[in-house]
Write a sequence for this structure.
């Protein structure tokens, strides 16, 4: 088809109906394309740099500001459970008795099991529930080892104080001379 041939009988340009919004959008798009071809958008100031928009343009601005202000961190359940599992022994060491340790392990295991029944959000869940008896035994062993360390340090400190002649309060102990030592020194 050349430039002067009439359009085919199947193409009728008046068959397309445009409303004003579509016509304006098409005209604007055509003007933008022509300006790009002419290079009018090349080397604009700030080209290639991120926009510095205020926080209120973000639809989640209030949630992000709350998390920043309260120093909250939301992690996927699988990652949070890994962190909790890594910190569990240290947390258990702060508890006063076996009953509290068992309660804490049971709560941790319930969270792991609950997470296993949910659809995964984020990385896969690899954290396993803890064996309560084995964990309590490990806790008791660590507690006994800490108590033994404290007793050993006290014995060493007492021995050092006796050797240097200091009391447990850091003052020098005055030793009385026996009557035999006083008479021989005269």
């Amino acid at each position: 088809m050349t430039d002067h041939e009439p359009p085919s009988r199947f193409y009728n340009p008046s068959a397309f109906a445009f409303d004003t919004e579509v016509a304006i959008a098409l005209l604007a798009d055509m003007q933008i394309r022509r300006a790009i071809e002419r290079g009018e958008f090349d080397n604009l100031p700030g080209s290639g740099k991120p926009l510095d928009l205020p926080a209120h343009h973000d639809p989640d601005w209030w949630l992000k500001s709350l998390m920043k202000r309260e120093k909250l961190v939301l992690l996927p359940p699988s990652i949070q459970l890994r962190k909790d599992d890594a910190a569990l022994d240290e947390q258990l060491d702060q508890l006063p008795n076996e009953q509290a340790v068992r309660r804490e392990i049971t709560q941790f295991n319930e969270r792991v099991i609950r997470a296993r029944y949910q659809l995964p959000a984020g990385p896969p869940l690899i954290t396993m529930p803890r064996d309560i008896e084995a964990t309590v035994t490990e806790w008791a062993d660590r507690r006994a080892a800490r108590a033994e360390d404290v007793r050993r340090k006290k014995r060493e400190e007492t021995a050092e104080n006796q050797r240097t002649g200091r009391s447990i309060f850091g003052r020098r102990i005055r030793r009385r001379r026996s009557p035999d030592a006083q008479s021989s020194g005269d």
Notes: The chain has a mean pLDDT of 82. The first helix runs from residue 20 to 38.
